[in-house]
Protein: HD domain-containing protein
Organism: Desulfoluna spongiiphila
Amino acid sequence: MRYNTVTEGLEHDLRATVHYLLVLVVMGGYGAGICPMVHSMPVVAWLFIVGTVLVFARGARAGLSRFVFQRTPPRWQVAGLFFLDVVLLGGAGVVISMQGDSWYGGGMRSAIELSTGFMSLGFFIGTDLALIHNRRLALTLGRGLFTMTGHFVSVSRKLVLVTVSSLVAVTVTLGIVIFNDFYWLTGQSMEALASYKKAVFFNQVFVITMLMGYTANIVMTYARNIHLFLDEETRTLSAVAAGNFNTRVPVAFNNELGVIASYTNRMIDGLQAQNLMVEKLRDVIINSMASLAETRDNETGSHIRRTQHYVKLLAETLAEVPGYRDVLTPSAIDLLYKTAPLHDIGKVGVPDAILLKPGPLTEEEFSVMKLHTLRGEEAIRRAEFKMGPGADTSFLSCAREIAGGHHEKWDGSGYPRGLSGCGIPLSARLMALADVYDALRSRRVYKDACDHGEARRIILEGRGTHFDPDVVDAFVACEDRFVGVSSRFEDTGESRQETLPMVG
C-alpha cells in the first residue's frame, strides 16, 4: 500500500477544521442545553461567544502552524503542534468562561468546568493532530529525517505517557464535572431537586461519552502510525526480496521504529552495493569470455557489439506487442543485452584448422563447426550447476539458450537439434536474426558487404522459414535504428576471414 502525501496534507488541514467545528458543537451544545450551570445564559449569546472565539482560534492556528512548519526543525514540529492546539483551545476556554461570567455571572465553578473542558479537548485534539503530522512527515521527508543516536523516547514510554495523560485528563475533567454538579444540586430546593437530577445525569453521561470518543480516536490514530511503519517496512523488505534495491523505509519516528527503519536502510545500502559489485563482476566475466571467443574467431569485435544492440532493439520493439509484454520486461531485455556476446562462446572448442579456414568447409568440417552451439551450451550449463540450487542463474540460463539455439530455424531446418516454432527459445530467435543481419552487412575476404536494402530483402524472404515472423515484423518496425547501430559500430581496418556463409 502506498500513501499519497498530498492527500495526507489535506487530511491534516481538514481534520483540524473538523476538530474545531466539533468543539463548537460539543461545547456549544454542552453549555446551551446540557450543563445546568450555564442555563442562565441565552442560547444565542452562548453560541455566539463560543463560535466567535473558536473561529479566531482556528484562524490563529492556520497562521501559527505555518510558522511551525517553516521555522521549526522537523523533529520539533510534532511537539510544537501539540502545544499549539492545547494553548489555543485552553486559552479559548478561559476567554469564553471569563466572557460568560462577565456578561451573565456564570460563577467561578462554571468557569473552571468549562475551561477544564476546553483544555481537555485541546489535549485530545492536539495529540491527534500531532500524530497526523508525524505521519505526514514520514511520507514527505522520509529517509534521513532523523539522525538516530539512541537518545529518544521509546515507543513503550510514549504509549505510557499518552495513556497516563489521557487518564489524567479524563479523571480531572470528570472529577470537576461531578463535584460541580453535586455542589450545584446541594444548593437547589427540594422541589426542584428531582427535575435537576436528570439534567445532572445527562451532563455526566455526555462528558463521559465525549471523553471516551476522543480517547478512542487517539488510540486509533496512534495505531495507524504504527501500521504505517509496519506497512512500509513490510513493503520495503518484500521489494528487496524481489530484487528491488531502490526502495527505502521512511525514517520519521524518533524511537525504536526509527532505529529499525535506519538499520533496514543501511542493510539495503549494503545489499545494493554488494549487488552492484556482483553485477559488475558478472558483466566483466561475460565480456572476458566473449573476448576470449573473439580471439579465436575470425570475426571482428564490432560484430559482438552490433549484435548485442540489434538484440536489444528487437526485444524492445517486440515488447510493445501485447503477447510479449509480460515476457520482455525491462530486466529481461537488459539480460538479453548483456548475455548476447556469449552466443558464439562455443567456438573456443573448434579446431583452428576449421575455425580459421579461408575457404569453404567440407561436409565433415561443417559438422564439427556445428558443435560450437552444443559446446557453448554445455559450458554454460556447467557454470549453472556450479552455482548450486537456489542461486539466481537467470543470466546463465539466458546465455545458454542463446548459445545453444541461435542457429535453429523457425521451420525446423536449423541446428543443433532441429527445433521449430516456439520450441526455440525467444532469446535464440532474436539472436538468430541479429546474427544473420550482421553477417550480411559485414565485409569479408570472400564477399562484399550487403547494403541494408539487400539484407532486408533476404530477411523478409526468411520470414516463417528461417526466422520467427514476429521477430521479422519487429525488425521491420525498427530497421532505421538497425542502420544507425551498423553505422555507429562500423568495422575499421581489414576484417578477418570468416566462414559464416558455410556455417549458416
Notes: The longest helix spans residues 190-241. Residues 1-6, 143-149, 493-504 have pLDDT under 50 and may be disordered. Residues 5-256 form one domain.
